[in-house]
């Protein structure tokens, strides 16, 4: 914390209050921002924020039984200001509720972040051009659901993100009695691409995957959750069990990351196995994270 100011943060059950007390006479406290939020009130030398956790672009990190909500307090210095711009982290920690996935009041179901070691996985529903989170969670049958997953690597060499498995279900946690609908299986085969317009979109970067999923007839009008296994892997370690394959009409199964190696997708019609001998060393090339998207609903436009 800078010596010229004092910051006091109070983490409420579903809100945060922050008081910034500034000692520099030239500082304009109206230029402070908490994430995307302006001060709730400000005066000479003070700025006060009272914001909901669902506002201001708070980031959510899950670590075991703890939920961490993090954001940045920034000072946006004007061009003629004598004061330099700065950023301070703001973090609130909560015990993870048992019904975290289904809670609607506090926790945003559209986008979720998961921590695993020094990797941070994120997956969520996106808007049509993948430029931001989805603005709604109800999709007519036959429409496209844009889904994006990514992994942030803090100390790792560049990793390739893969969706190893995804199933739709009517419950936020999978149980033996859960009604399920397979979307991706067999170690990265997009089954839905065979009979629909579902496809993997071209990568923007190796640590990110974009999926255009055409809605299917499943649990119409009910809450739907998609359960996925995300795999961060060595970009040079693709094989029959480390891949992203989708079916292209008129061409057959294609490998997203290298058309020349599309033969790795031949097993999508049978059982995919690794051609390499498994070893402890090879397992260290990647990490797997389970994640859940939702809830959202699929509606029948004809009903």
TrEMBL record:
Matching InterPro entries, A to Z? Answer: ZP-C, ZP-C_dom, ZP_dom
Organism of origin: Champsocephalus gunnari (Mackerel icefish)
Q: Which GO terms describe its molecular function?
A: acrosin binding
Q: What is this protein called?
A: ZP domain-containing protein
UniProt keywords (A-Z) are:
Disulfide bond
Q: Which residues form the ZP domain?
A: 10-252
**Cellular component, GO annotation:** extracellular matrix
Give one Pfam family.
Answer: Zona_pellucida
Which Gene Ontology BP terms does the record give?
Answer: binding of sperm to zona pellucida; egg coat formation; positive regulation of acrosome reaction
